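re: ur question from earlier - yeah i can do the single chain one, its not a big deal. heres the input i used so u can compare w yours
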Amino acid sequence: MMKFTTNEDIATMIIEALNIVDVASIGRTSHIMHKITHEVCRRRLTCIMAPFVKGRYSSFIKALQISKGVITGSAARSMLTGDNINANRDLNIVVPYAGFFAIDTFMVEQLHYECTSRTPHHALSSIIHHYHQYTANHHTITVACSSPASSLLHIILNSPCTADMVFMTTGGLTCFYPQWMRQAIAIQTHIGDLLLNNHDLGCGTNNSSDIRIERDTDFLGSACGNRCPTLWHHISQKHLRTSVDWDVDDSVTQVFHNVDVEWRLNVHCSNHACRYNSQVMCSNVVSCGSVNSSDVKFLPPEIRCRKPHFTHIFQGLFYGLACYRPFLVPVPVNDGIGGPPTLDDLLVNYWIKQREADDCTATRQHLRRTFAKIPHSNVPLDGLYTVLFESPRTGVQRNHVLQRIASLNGSQMNETHNGSILIVKQALSNDHTMLNMTKDDMALANFLMSSIIHHEMCGPMLKQD
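and the output i got, formated as tokens:
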């Protein structure tokens, strides 16, 4: 029979049975509880990791921190729930591109694992840049990294279901869609759709898992709300994730610093009670960029009559690559945006192609530049003018409107002047409220574009996330 010598032992036993979110909440109540919960978290992490690292736990933790890697999959879920701590047979690690070769060297030279595969699952082959699978003593470790210019969150958010969108550093853990996780429910994503009935990836591989995987949100019996699979979300929004730290020296929130990633779970919704379900949305036009005056004539009625109606529509200035002049066009705001819209919330793909129609993660902030005055002059603008560019791709023609503007001021066009361009306007106030552009703004916008072209400032910035 287990013997408890102090009240602290009893408290420890109770806390060990809780999920990590509740453990962290209890740790904030008093100094003694902070001490107990910190030890519970440390011990839980050690129990999960120890079977994989062959007595080199401290070295492994250091290597993971140096490579800025995170742990996902069943190990992260065990850390979250406290269940199946000693039952994990595999350890899944995701690192940024810069950290891949350091962690690979550690696996082979320090842990003496053998690399048995370099091919990721076919459903993730377009998301993962490098992948190694290692085996030793009936244990498997996988290491995956994103492309050089991308955040590792692209891999996390392209998981087969929401229950796989859990990851941890050595000092904290983040869980996306925590409400569903608490209910032991997971929603299949667009990646999960590729698996068909063969759940050979993610938590679906564990037949004993007590997580119920739903193919869509129809099980709710009501509208999806802001958790509709088709709605886009930016990583800066925190309402769909929960993060807890037990060691601030390797806080999980560092993963989100200075990162531009947006995501959605799927390209369609099958929930009949949802206003964005497939039967409603199939009648709408899907546009991935516009080029000429015919598009300018066709798209505005489609945008204004779209079902369901857009909650917010602003007016921007469109420089189509095959247009003879700029046009004022309607720019809608993404569905599901409750507060004041920001630049990240604008659905610009009707006019400029910044992501593919079937994308479920994207990075777009590097495709825009904001100006408060005319470059290389003292001429102030009457608002913040943001120039939005198309995602660079081969075979795109140079912009005819910009060529005409360049010829008027004797400037030379370069390769960054390809594709269509959109300009939107915000107030100079602290809240940067979105404003409608009018005909009175055209002259100032043309002056801005003329200066940008003359000083070769036109084009997307190089930095990506």
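The CA atoms of residues 157 and 165 lie 6 Å apart. not sure if urs matches, ping me
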